[in-house]
Structure to design on (365 residues):
């Protein structure tokens, strides 16, 4: 399934440096605003040690990890919702993504200019929030105009939709982000249908200096306090460290570098894992001599939906799924051994796929 995260933030907060580290796409990273005018699209390979273990056991001809598309969106500035700094183009790019990775600068460096002249991640976040809110208000106002015309027919459904839309606009006018709204089911449906920018799930990345990577600093503490009511995750990453790691050629060199820095894993791994969690995703696997592969699905999907990610024919003609739990596959060492131990289950259309399931689908077209 095609999933896309967008990296946003003010100019010069480290978005493009982080994007390069994530994708090794070598996007332009420069010390001036609007170094990124067109969005850079990269593909992130999702690291998963379970895939490596299955490949070790099966020894396939090919190993295929799952991926997420990531969009490096040019820096927003105050007035973007009114077209300042190519703002309309940037906001349109944000509308395309499934989730937002919001990078805020939490480090001092006199050699890296800040678009507002000083470092203040809380203020920077508010600038972005306000621009997205202004655009959302514009979107909701257009919907309200349309609903008012429809409501003249006297249909209760149209009148109810108008009431909800006005409720949403009032909240946005008061500075409440759409993702924080508590609405009834029909309200949630309307909200989803409007594709509001502030309704998108969000992950905050505090870009820190090397010294602050473990415990954070005064900037990160202030930022975490400012977003307490948002129910959003915050992770600390040093884009500089990630850039250094990305330059190393071998796995051994990267492990040595991480050990020297006192890190268990690259920050980009944390970002990818958090993005997965943010989008409510899980991974299942297919494992055979030709290919061991990871597949991305939504948590809660049933077996036919999961099969459809491989090919639509698999979902249409679904008969059953043969399922092996990852732990059983690893413990027993092969599919044959799992079958002999009676650990493989045969599941029907109502089976909810679990994270790490190793699956084989039977279908008929």
């Amino acid at each position: 399934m095609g999933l896309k995260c967008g990296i946003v933030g003010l100019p010069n907060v480290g978005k493009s440096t982080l994007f390069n580290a994530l994708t090794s796409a070598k996007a332009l990273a420069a010390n001036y605003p609007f170094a990124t005018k067109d969005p850079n699209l990269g593909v992130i390979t999702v690291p998963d040690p379970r895939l490596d273990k299955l490949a070790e056991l099966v020894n396939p001809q090919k190993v295929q990890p799952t991926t997420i598309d990531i969009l490096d969106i040019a820096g927003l500035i105050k007035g973007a919702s009114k077209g300042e700094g190519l703002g309309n183009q940037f906001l349109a790019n944000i509308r395309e993504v499934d989730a937002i990775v919001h990078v805020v600068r939490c480090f001092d460096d006199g050699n890296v200019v800040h678009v507002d002249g000083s470092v203040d991640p809380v203020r920077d976040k508010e600038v972005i929030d306000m621009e997205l809110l202004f655009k959302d208000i514009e979107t909701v106002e257009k919907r309200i105009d349309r609903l008012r015309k429809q409501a003249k027919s006297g249909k209760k459904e149209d009148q109810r939709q108008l009431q909800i839309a006005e409720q949403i606009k009032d909240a946005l006018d008061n500075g409440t982000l759409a993702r924080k709204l508590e609405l009834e089911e029909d309200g949630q449906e309307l909200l989803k249908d409007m594709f509001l920018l502030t309704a998108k799930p969000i992950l905050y990345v505090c870009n820190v200096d090397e010294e602050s990577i473990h415990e954070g600093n005064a900037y990160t503490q202030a930022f975490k306090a400012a977003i307490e009511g948002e129910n959003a995750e915050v992770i600390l990453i040093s884009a500089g460290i990630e850039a250094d790691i990305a330059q190393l050629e071998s796995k051994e060199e990267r492990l040595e570098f991480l050990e020297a820095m006192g890190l268990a894993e690259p920050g980009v791994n944390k970002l990818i894992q958090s993005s997965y969690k943010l989008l409510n995703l899980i991974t299942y696997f297919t494992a055979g001599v030709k290919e061991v592969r990871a597949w991305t699905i939504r948590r809660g999907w049933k077996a036919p939906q999961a099969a459809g990610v491989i090919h639509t024919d698999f979902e249409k003609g679904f008969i059953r799924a043969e399922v092996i739990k990852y732990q059983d596959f690893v413990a027993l060492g092969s599919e044959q051994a799992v079958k002999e131990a009676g650990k493989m289950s045969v599941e029907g259309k109502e089976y909810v796929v679990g994270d790490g399931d190793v699956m084989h689908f039977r279908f008929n077209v």
Notes: The longest helix spans residues 121-151.
